[in-house]
Amino acid sequence: MKRILHLLLTFLCLAHTAAGQNQEENGPTTAPAAKPVKVALVLSGGGAKGMAHIGVLKVLERAGIPIDIITGTSMGSIIGGMYSCGHHAHELDSVVRAQDWSFVLSDREDLSHQSLREREKQNTYAYASGLTFSKKRSGEGGGIILGKNIAALFDAYTTPYNDSIDFNTLPIPFACVATDVVDYSEKVYHSGVLSHAMRASMSIPAAFAPVRVDSMVLVDGGLVNNFPTDVAKEMGADYIIGVDVQSELKKASELNSTSSILLQVIDHNCKRKYEENLKMTDLYIRVNTKGYSSASFSANAVDTLIRRGEEAAMKHWDEIIALRDRLGIAPPDTTSQPTKYTPPLTNTRYAIRELEFKNMTKSDESYIRKKFRLNRGDSIDMDRADIIATAIRQDTYYRSARFRIQPHADNGSAKVSFTAGPRRGKRLNIGVRFDNEEAVAMQANAEVPFYTKVPMDMELTVRLGKRLMARADWSIHPLSFFRPTLSYIFRNNDIDFYDYGRKAYSMSYNQHTVKLTLFNFNMLNFNVSIGANWDYYDYHSMLIDREPEHIADSATEDKGMISYEGKVWYDSEDDWHFPTRGARFLAKYAYHTDNFLTLDGKVGIRELGAMWRMTFPLSHKFFIQPMLYGRLVFTDDVPFVLSNVMGGEWHGHYFEQQLPFAGVGHLQLAWDKMLAAQLQAQYKPTNNHVILMRLGVGQDAQDLEDILKSKTMIGGSLSYYFKTMFGPMGGSIGYSNLTKKFYYYINLGFVF
């Protein structure tokens, strides 16, 4: 036994000696490589205050800090999600500054992708809501805003990662947090459709409709985890940079309004897990957001918040540089200029390799395919896809429609998908306005779609006020952008007319109109319509001053007319009331008879009207807008209801043939031939404040050859308006040599 132990010890000694000799021959052994440090960026929620995250990202990029993991909640998920796709800080800066946030945070349609008829409606009514008479509810409810515009923004800026993916495969691994209000639990998104995850994470309860996934109803993640450092830790973070844009809780003296109390409740909820998550943060950057709220999306607020984010990060510059040294990273090259940012897909056209429609009937799909001539191999880009999505909502009556362009590896073709939401159903639009001419007025419009093979709809419109109106329109939507319409319109008008600044007539009458528009071609900014009208005028009373010529011209009798008219309408302006670019052109020709051919046995009344205006920017705040317009009526004796009238701020406001004129407030009678020009200077100190200065000149006469012989009419006005969701609020003062007196005008709300 001893001999065996002796031999074993001898063998171990020899083995140890051999190992030592081998180590001397091969050099010393190398220690295991150190595990690379993973740096995570955690971005808190905070609504518009989250714009400050971009400023922090700018500083981190300036220092050359690599980000290996991003987690975020609410606005932190939006900025973090787009950054994880590869968009750098200067790109995100360009993106958020370029948005019209009042549009993005609404369900309004993009005006550039609507027919002129739909644009007009959108700028007439302040409130729109679905009408339902059944107990069955849509799966998209639960919030004032469905969020279709912000969802489209997310789809655009998370391209090409629009499919269901593992978020760890993004250029920077990403995760975000939402709240399942069914059991008030935390839902952490590590996979799925990135834009859907971002949309769920920022769904502020009641404001935005929740995102529904299986049995979950997902809202803003800030309610359960507004500073998700724990999520970053679980993803393998070694060093966490946390950016906090949450507001401090208010004191009792500050809680003196409904909104402040509601926000305080939300802020308290956002503190869940906050203290424990804060302890996991290695570098904590708190941004001063005092003076701004979750809804501060104005251009000035966005600019200030981004700057404050930079300032907050720069206070930690030494710690950031120490982290860079710890990571062993060389300082970045600061001499290179960032590449110019181009929005994804906007200018890229793809051949359609695959085309699919989801949640749409076969007849609706066939209608859209034929209308836009969609076939395999045709080209498509983001703008055209957006136009098609708009048509799905407008023409085939779906509440929402989204598209997805998924480029294939060959980079020349793509799979294109259109996904529709629930049927839109009946819709109610309501507008309320006030002006000092007719006090309060209200107009309501109900849309009733018919889900037929060829889409059809009926609209009912009622106007209450000094000018009563009821209207019914039945329209059919055949292919190729046509929309023939049959309409009945009843009007009860009680209107005052002035002559040289003095009230001359006060007229009350009913007008019945049956209108058949056979040719109604709509294509984005362009509309051509041709049709026929039957009008019957039922006069109630006519009050006249004592002027002999007014008494002589006041003869009226009930009369029916059959008219033919054609209109051409072009409008590329970017704003209905206060455009900063684009042009508007309108031309109309009408022929009025009482027996289809003549009027009182003579040639019928011929009417020709036109208006053209164009906007030229002189700076980003100052614009000039020249306008030429006029109306010519050819006949020996013009009926009162077809006479030229001028005055006011807008075309056709109180009277169908009303021509605006700077410095004239009330409706002024004009001769049969009138031509005018206006130069408007528009100054916008901010996006919502508008100051207007107008100078108008005009000529009118009984006969065209005498129009330059008459006295030139000159007028001017100064206006201020504030743009709101309910329409323009403001007023004007003006003076003209026609009325020889100052006038003032106050308008609150959209014009109808």
Strand order of the largest sheet: 18-19-20-21-22-23-24-25-26-29-30-34-35-36-37-38
Oligomeric organization of the protein chains = single chain
Radius of gyration: 34 Å
- Average per-residue pLDDT, rounded, comes to 85
Structure description:
This protein has 752 residues and is α+β, with helices and mostly antiparallel strands. It contains 16 helices and 38 strands. The strands form seven sheets. It has a 16-stranded antiparallel barrel. Strands 1, 2, 6, 7, 10, 11, 12 and 13 form an eight-stranded mixed beta sheet that branches. Strands 15-14-17-16 form a four-stranded mixed beta sheet. The longest helix is centred in the N-terminal third of the chain and has 25 residues, at 2-26.
Which properties best describe this structure?
752 residues; alpha+beta; 16-stranded antiparallel β-barrel; eight-stranded mixed beta sheet; 38 strands; 22% helix; disordered N terminus
Write the layout of secondary structure elements.
Layout lengths: L1 H25 L12 E5 L8 H12 L5 E5 L1 H10 L4 H10 L2 H4 L11 H7 L4 E5 L11 E3 L2 H10 L7 E2 L7 E7 L4 E5 L1 E2 L1 H8 L4 E3 L2 E3 L2 E5 L8 H6 L4 E6 L13 H12 L4 H6 L3 E4 L12 H16 L2 H11 L22 E9 L3 H10 L7 E2 L1 H14 L5 E7 L5 E8 L5 E10 L3 E12 L5 E9 L3 E9 L8 E15 L2 E22 L2 E19 L3 H5 L6 E13 L10 E12 L4 E2 L2 E2 L1 E13 L4 E13 L10 E2 L11 E2 L8 E2 L3 E11 L5 E13 L11 E12 L2 E10 L4 E8 L4
Parallel strand pairs: 1-2, 1-12, 2-6, 4-9, 12-13, 14-17, 31-32
Antiparallel strand pairs: 3-18, 5-8, 6-7, 6-11, 10-11, 14-15, 16-17, 18-19, 18-38, 19-20, 20-21, 21-22, 22-23, 23-24, 24-25, 25-26, 26-29, 27-28, 29-30, 30-34, 31-33, 34-35, 35-36, 36-37, 37-38
Helix pairs in contact: 2-4, 2-12, 3-8, 7-8
